[in-house]
């Protein structure tokens, strides 16, 4: 019997929440962006960091301006995708509502909302934007959620 530490990875439906810590240049601008624009709620916080409920996951913004830098890009399906980015995989209706809210707010997308890999395995709606510190975020919704890890 395999050891639990080396067991097969969780399936899409069984994935636990993840935690991500990232640098920011301004905590209050970060708070406004994640709460007012993206709809995240604030968890614990201190003088130099804030936790957010990021679509059911915990992200921690740490005040560390000297570590903030814009990511380089790679070409993916015709787009220049920031290599260093994070985000959330959403249900299509939630993704659509977020895209509409961001567009109505005049968001400056680095990659506009669109469908990638149309008609192929892994077809997905995607969009990229930057937070106030230049951290790249991607939000996507798969045409078929079961293809999240399909090859």
Can you walk me through this structure?
This protein has 151 residues and is an alpha+beta fold. The protein has a single domain, classed as 2,3-Dihydroxybiphenyl 1,2-Dioxygenase, domain 1 (Roll), CATH 3.10.180. It is built from 2 helices and 10 strands. The protein has helices at residues 27-37, 92-104, and strands at 19-24, 41-46, 49-54, 57-63, 73-76, 79-82, 85-89, 111-116, 124-130, 136-142. The strands form 3 sheets. It has a 4-stranded mixed sheet, covered by helices on one side. A 4-stranded mixed sheet has the order 7-10-9-8, with helices on one face. β2 and β3 form a beta hairpin.
Q: Brief overview, please?
A:
With about 150 residues, this protein is α+β, with helices and mostly antiparallel strands. About 15% of the residues lie in helices and about 40% in strands.
Shape: globular
Strand order of the largest sheet: 1-4-3-2
Largest beta-sheet characterization: 4 strands, mixed
- Topology as H/E string? EHEEEEEEHEEE
Which blocks of ≥5 consecutive residues have pLDDT under 50? 1-10
List keywords for this structure.
151 residues; alpha+beta; 2,3-Dihydroxybiphenyl 1,2-Dioxygenase, domain 1; 4-stranded mixed beta sheet; 10 strands; 38% strand; globular; disordered N terminus
Task: Give the SSE map.
Elements lengths: L18 E6 L2 H11 L3 E6 L2 E6 L2 E7 L9 E4 L2 E4 L2 E5 L2 H13 L6 E6 L7 E7 L5 E7 L9
Parallel strand pairs: 1-4, 7-10
Antiparallel strand pairs: 2-3, 3-4, 5-6, 8-9, 9-10
